[in-house]
Batch of 2 targets.
Target 1
Amino acid sequence: MPEGDTIHRAAARLRPALAGQVVRRFEAPRLLGDRPKVGTRIDDVEAVGKHLLVHFEGGLTLQTHMRMTGSWHLYRPGERWQKAAHLSRALIEVDDWVAVCFAAPVVRTFHRNEDPVGHLGPDLCRSDLTDADIDECVERMAACTGPADEIGAVLLDQRVACGVGNVYKSEVLFVCGVDPFTRVADLDVDTRRRLVTTASRLLRANLDTAQRTTVPGGLAVYGRNRQPCRRCGTAVRSRRQGEQARSTYWCPTCQPARSAR
Ligand SMILES: [Zn+2]
């Protein structure tokens, strides 16, 4: 499942292959927006939260959002693809490489003056994240949430902060000892701040590895329903949460309920 760390890794792979190169072929069957012309130079490849952006000279940017299904692959020209061609949503060919985006639900382009990701919160995967960015996330958490919103759902809101997906959501709440069903309104500022800084720390610690680790041994609670908590031995629980009914995992002993459900 792509989260912020996955997108940053994809950008790190694509950048040396594409940046500075000239587009030889561009295909995007469902593209919304203007099409980069063959012969255009690629300025850079960038990850912003869960968006992978390819910037072209002249100010046009290709935006792909991976949601649950999307992925970018890099192939040599003529190399056999690992996924079916009909799943291709964007293809950029340069002299030595073919970059293919499979199954991404959002593929669009925008011009520099439009910036569709301006409404997103700070990107927690960035190595140059500042205290001011953390403060902004904490403020956005207050601004974006209603009185009944639960922290387990709000951590996924990319308007608050970018990069946290369903895996990190559960892991961050475990590391901070916070019950996922706590209303954000019942969390003090210190706890909100600790959640954001912990999310950033865990995301950044996993940027260079495919095997996500948040506690010694791997993941603390995510995907471990009914298995013993690595810290206290209590059976880990799982439940659907939020409008999108995303699965949430938690240890009821290490993350005691703070408010009436
Ligand atoms: Zn526990």
Note: Residues 91 and 100 are 5 Å apart (CA to CA).
Target 2
Amino acid sequence: MSSVFDDLVGQEHIIDILKGAVAASRTGSDSQEMTHAWVFTGPPGSGRSSAAVAFAQALICPNQGCGACNECQSAATGGHPDVEVICTEGLSIKVEEIRELLTRVAWAPSMGGWRVVVMEDADRLTESAANALLKAIEEPGTRTIWLLCAPTLHDVLPTIRSRCRHLQLRTPSIEAVTQVLIKRDNVSPIMADFAARVSQGHIGRAKYLATNESVRSNRKVIMQLPLQLGSLAAAFQAAQTLVDIATSEAHTSSKERDEKEVEKLQEAYGKGATGRGMATGAAKAVKELEKEQRSRVTRMVRDSIDGALLDLATLYRDVMMVQSGATESMINSDMRAEIENFASSFPPHSAVQKITAVMEARNQLAMNAAPLVACEALMCELARR
Ligand SMILES: [Zn+2]
């Protein structure tokens, strides 16, 4: 029988634990054996939120996570009254949001089983938000299960993580990601292999790349940038190109979603209603929503630049591989000739410094540096010989 856990690629080590917990959650009305708070950690793309959502599905499904029943399907699409998935659009989760969430989940589960809250970015909780959440987690005898996701355990406040059971996801192997793309997403084997390799085990990114022609051509442009840094002017141009591409990618993928959200909101207020109060209420809510959407695009641009920087780091990593004669483990084997040529003109040890510079730029961005400025500084550094 198929199960919601089938899609968790390369995570066999935690699937048994999750299945055991689901089984324990069914034994009688006593919930002693069931841990109420869990933390899923793992590198980006390892699928920590997918794992948490699968667990949520299994907890509320009458067949322990069949993936096919109404419960499973509505839980996955946000339509189940007892399952709430919190995705953060802004850079942080504020205490007001947690308070609002707590009033929403204060009711007993509607189906009599469990209420499950999946928090995708628990690392973005502000300290006061985390403290508010802590109180809820500590409350005894509730029927709410908290599934928090974060890159590492260090990203979660110690007070919270000490009350959670911890599950560490692994980066799936390139081979495992390739197989999923072929079987689940009907991607051709050659494309699947390419996407899995350059995405370094990041399943979401691999799928995005394998199924989007424009994303692939953008990536191609970005990967050429380090090869064209002949002058300072070229470095500034390269920074601009990188930021432009990231911005347009973020806008393309958010535009459709933004429009749908505004439409849905207007419908909720009764589109075309003529009452004056109605109109101002709707206008205010739309304004509020558009503000949230802008902050989401800002974050998506940053994420997109970060992805591009990781790609650039793999190019310098390949330069090191070529210089040490280990070409068989190249990531960007589609650029083999260009990288070999590039590597031959590169002083030894210089590639390491370039990777350090890329990682430094990522840190700067994570600390809210202006994207263009951070990229300009990086490209100037990369242009230096
Ligand atoms: Zn089910």
Note: The longest helix spans residues 276-323.
